[in-house]
Amino acid sequence: MKAVHIVLFFGLLGGFVTTRAQQELLEAKVTFEFPSKNVKGSISGFTSQSTINWEALELSLFEGTVEARSLRTNNSLRDWHLRSSRYFATKTYPRIHFKSTEIAWEGDTLLVKGRLTLKGTTKPLTIRFQQQGKQLLGSCSLYSSDYGITIKKKREDNLVNIRFRFTVK
What we know:
The chain has 169 residues and is mostly beta strands. The chain has a single domain, classed as Lipid/polyisoprenoid-binding, YceI-like (Lipocalin). The protein has one helix at 76-83, and strands at residues 3-6, 8-9, 12-13, 17-18, 25-34, 39-43, 46-47, 50-53, 63-67, 95-106, 109-118, 121-132, 135-143, 159-168. The strands form three sheets. It has a nine-stranded antiparallel sheet, with no helix packed on it. A three-stranded antiparallel sheet has the order 4-1-8, with no helix packed on it. It is globular.
């Protein structure tokens, strides 16, 4: 049986191992963009043991957490402010958690549907993955205001685009 174990955040990913052709994650990178403020950043420090079974996707599970304080925007003052109770409230809500509810192929895209818990609010989230050579590339979007993190007044101005890039051996 061909199985893949994936260390996952938010989607939350951090590893890629198959039992037939052992593959190890050489690099993991999760970045985000907040377009309305032209802010880009990254999230690190994943913890998870997730399993994907390519022969029976219904037996697979993507689950992981990340420490909210690992958010970085290359501006330490802004990062400190984002960790405050007004935004991420990292002292009260130290972790961001994702758990899949369904994993399926849509053409050559692997769809991972699940529930994201951020700042005490849980909502559905879908991450789309493509494999390109030795990389597993994923993306999703969410509105921070849906999770109690309102940076701009209009919902559409709180859009956050998230990208995952994992390099495998």
